[in-house]
């Protein structure tokens, strides 16, 4: 054992830091005991402002762990929520001696949990995390419980004690024993009281049972904020500024998205990449031709233009602050010819429902559903089997890519294959046909059409090459040894710089598939009689 370690210099530094640790956390419970000769413990409590002076005069703990005095029942059956007014536990040590075993754990004061409406998640009582849930469903860790350590985020604790006019006290007890002190350490026995503005402790060095003891015991005081302010104080919403034009000097013109007279129809533009965040998390977000959102917010957008996203400026004020900042980084200046789409104008301005979306990906998704319904109306079964609940996100996340990223290209191509070729209703297609057992998928589909007197070789060439692309897909790239895949790459003309263009072609040819089948089978949605 080193001299500084014996003298508890490491623990004194923690005291001086008031047990604050990195990233705004405060230690409020710790069992850091190594053995009998090296023990350390931290506990905590709440003290009202009018009791601080009383408890700052000595180093003793206000109460011991397991004896928090909540609740208290006295000999005359008097009941009090807390044994001493103005002194409250923040943590409560609980132990139970059961017939089979003994259980012990530490709970958090319910008042603190209820004040922030904390969401609790964990494996058991000794391994838990409490989260603050924002109005937009975002989780922020507030307090964590581990068997040997409990910590709380200081900003939440300070708000709580400020609103309650209380101080937070971290009590500590550190002790180290050494059988023989080296003579060159020049250590003398002492009983010293150290008192500063925010802490007080006793450092005692003495002989105990043929050993020398170094013992520090005391309290740290965490004071409330000077101004009472809670998370319930919403204040004014923050509105970011976005580009609405370019002045005569070529400088960008910005305007915040707050609602003012005359700016209801001002448009600002964004790169299509702004939507990638939402497409990549289809379980949280939904994107369609007219909006993007979650269960916490919805932003009206024009997603019917291939190169950019137009948005009415004041609509952006509906976004949470962090979402506004996300959109801001993709904000672009207007160029000649940029405008909202015809579909968006008819729907959102004129109040008419446009017949079809204008971009290939949205049109594919719309047509996929309507075609499948028309097919089912005619034949009594869907050509493309419904997705399972666990795969529904595939349809939601399907979109055009905005850059020549091979990973994104492979993911979206695979999704189109899963929605079409993989979902072919082979059982129904094969009914009444005398087929070889080796005929599967696309082959069954082709034989079904031939049985109806329909021959479309170009369509099946496309479908087979699309399937071959999928078969040669290895870890977001394409196999160099797969001959069928190499033929498909040649068929689609895939190069390292045209993935976005090829995916667009796949969307378009898939639409041709729907349209061609509708034409051959004269598919139309059933109209209500009347």
Describe the protein in words.
Helix 9 packs parallel to helix 16, helix 11 (406-419) packs across helix 14 (457-471) and helix 14 (457-471) crosses helix 15 (483-492). Helices cover 29% and strands 27% of the residues. Strands 1, 2, 3, 6, 9, 10, 11, 12, 13, 14, 15 and 16 form a 12-stranded antiparallel sheet that branches. A 3-stranded antiparallel sheet has the order 23-19-24, with no helix packed on it. By secondary structure, it is an alpha+beta fold.
Give the tags.
single chain; 530 residues; alpha+beta; 3-stranded antiparallel sheet; elongated
Topology, please?
Layout: H1 3-6, H2 9-16, E1 20-21, E2 25-31, E3 38-48, H3 52-55, E4 72-73, E5 79-80, E6 87-89, E7 91-97, E8 102-108, H4 110-116, E9 119-124, E10 127-133, E11 139-145, E12 149-153, H5 154-163, E13 166-178, E14 190-195, E15 199-208, E16 211-222, E17 241-246, E18 252-256, E19 267-271, H6 276-279, E20 286-287, E21 291-293, E22 298-300, E23 308-312, H7 321-328, E24 331-332, H8 342-349, H9 360-379, H10 392-397, H11 406-419, H12 426-429, H13 442-451, H14 457-471, E25 473-474, E26 477-478, H15 483-492, H16 499-521
Antiparallel strand pairs: 1-2, 2-3, 2-12, 3-6, 3-13, 4-5, 7-8, 9-10, 10-11, 11-12, 13-16, 14-15, 15-16, 17-18, 19-23, 19-24, 20-21, 21-22, 25-26
Helix pairs in contact: 9-16, 11-14, 11-16, 14-15
């Amino acid at each position: 054992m080193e001299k500084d370690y014996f003298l508890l210099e490491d623990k004194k530094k923690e005291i001086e830091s008031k047990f604050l640790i990195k990233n705004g956390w405060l230690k409020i419970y710790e069992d850091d005991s190594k053995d009998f000769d090296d023990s350390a413990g931290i506990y905590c409590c709440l003290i009202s402002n009018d009791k601080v002076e009383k408890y700052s005069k000595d180093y003793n703990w206000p109460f011991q762990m397991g004896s928090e005095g909540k609740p208290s029942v006295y000999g005359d059956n008097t009941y009090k929520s807390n044994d001493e007014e103005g002194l409250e536990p923040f943590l409560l040590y609980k132990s139970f001696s059961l017939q089979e075993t003994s259980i012990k754990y530490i709970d958090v004061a319910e008042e603190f949990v209820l004040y922030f409406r904390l969401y609790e998640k964990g494996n058991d009582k000794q391994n838990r995390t409490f989260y603050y849930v924002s109005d937009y469903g975002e989780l922020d860790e507030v307090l964590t419980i581990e068997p040997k350590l409990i910590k709380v985020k200081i900003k939440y604790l300070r708000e709580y004690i400020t609103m309650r006019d209380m101080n937070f006290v971290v009590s500590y007890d550190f002790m180290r024993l050494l059988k023989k002190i080296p003579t060159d350490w020049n250590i003398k026995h002492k009983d010293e009281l150290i008192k500063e503005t925010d802490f007080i402790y006793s450092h005692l060095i003495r002989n105990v049972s043929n050993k020398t003891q170094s013992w520090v015991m005391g309290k740290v005081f965490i004071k409330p904020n000077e101004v009472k302010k809670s998370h319930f104080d919403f204040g004014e919403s923050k509105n970011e500024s976005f580009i609405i034009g370019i002045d005569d000097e070529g400088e960008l013109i910005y305007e915040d998205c707050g609602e003012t007279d005359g700016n209801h129809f001002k448009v600002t533009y964004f790169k299509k990449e702004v939507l990638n965040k939402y497409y990549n998390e289809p379980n949280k977000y939904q994107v369609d031709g007219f909006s993007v959102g979650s269960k916490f917010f919805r932003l009206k957008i024009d997603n019917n233009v291939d190169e950019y996203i137009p948005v009415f400026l004041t609509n952006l004020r509906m976004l949470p602050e962090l979402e506004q900042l996300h959109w801001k980084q993709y904000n672009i200046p207007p160029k000649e010819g940029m405008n909202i789409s015809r579909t968006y104008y008819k729907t959102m301005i004129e109040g008419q429902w446009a017949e079809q979306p204008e971009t290939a990906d949205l049109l594919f998704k719309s047509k996929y559903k309507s075609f499948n319904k028309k097919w089912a109306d005619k034949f009594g079964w869907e050509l493309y089997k419904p997705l399972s609940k666990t795969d529904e996100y595939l349809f939601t996340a399907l979109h055009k890519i905005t850059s020549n990223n091979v990973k994104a290209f492979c993911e979206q191509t695979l999704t189109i294959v899963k929605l079409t070729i993989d979902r072919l209703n082979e059982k129904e297609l094969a009914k009444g046909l005398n087929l070889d057992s080796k005929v599967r998928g696309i082959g069954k589909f082709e034989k079904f059409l031939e049985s109806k007197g329909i021959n479309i070789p170009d369509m099946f060439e496309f479908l087979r090459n699309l399937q071959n692309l999928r078969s040669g897909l290895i870890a977001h790239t394409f196999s160099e040894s797969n001959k069928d895949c190499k033929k498909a790459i040649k068929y689609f003309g895939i190069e390292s710089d045209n993935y976005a263009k090829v995916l667009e072609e796949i969307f378009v040819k898939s639409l041709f598939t729907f349209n061609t089948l509708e034409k051959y089978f004269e598919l139309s949605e059933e109209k209500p009689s009347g």
